[in-house]
Amino acid sequence: MELKIPNHIGIIMDGNGRWAKKRNLPRTLGHREGAKTLRKILTYASQRGVKYLTVYAFSTENWKRAKEEVDALMFLFKTYIKSERKNLMKNNVRFLVSGRTEGVSDSLLEAIRDLEETTKENTGIVLNIAFNYGGRAEIIDAVNKIINQGKKEITEDTFKEYLYNNIPDPELIIRTSGEFRISNFLLWQVAYSEFYITDLFWPEFDEKAFDDAINSYNKRDRRFGGAK
């Protein structure tokens, strides 16, 4: 039987720091390895027929981390944007970022917007990076947009239009490093998502692990509150 491939997969890329610590390496090196894993998994997800891939790169809570690590993450993201431009264009990838702009440097925001504009006509897989992102913050920001527009009544469908990026809800959420938490990720969108947890740290996650998640998803009975 042919496997069902989720249209949209979300990944909580957890365990970069612990992967590095286990090897007596700096946490920043773990994040660099995590960026390499993202490149690999994005390519494979596209080959498997996934249309949208949303990855959790930096949360609104991550500002609480040591300044050295936060600065390294900001630098790494900016480096990723510059280094991956040619690869994203070559592979027809559309690049999006979901999150708040507060606290993010003007130069990084400019790089983000430039890459979003450059790839906006691409028709392949959509890479949506949740950066400076929080699920609660996204809902609050959407509500404030609605208030500012003076709307008195909305539906679930119209509410989605006010989220950071109006893309389909994910059918599957993958979390690495064995943690059983949503961690404020896509709180509105995951209402009926299936979850797959692996003990692998994100830098260890590979094509086989991705296929394991797809295989697990295919064993789920998705009823959306109904009964068969």
UniProtKB/TrEMBL annotation:
One of its GO terms (molecular function) is magnesium ion binding. Coiled coil: none annotated. Transmembrane segments: none annotated. It comes from the Bacteria. CDD domains: Cis_IPPS. InterPro entries: UPP_synth-like (IPR001441), UPP_synth-like_CS (IPR018520), UPP_synth-like_sf (IPR036424). Mg(2+) binds at D14, E194. Its cofactor is Mg(2+). NCBIfam families: PRK14830.1, uppS. Belongs to the UPP synthase family. This is Isoprenyl transferase. It comes from Cetobacterium ceti.
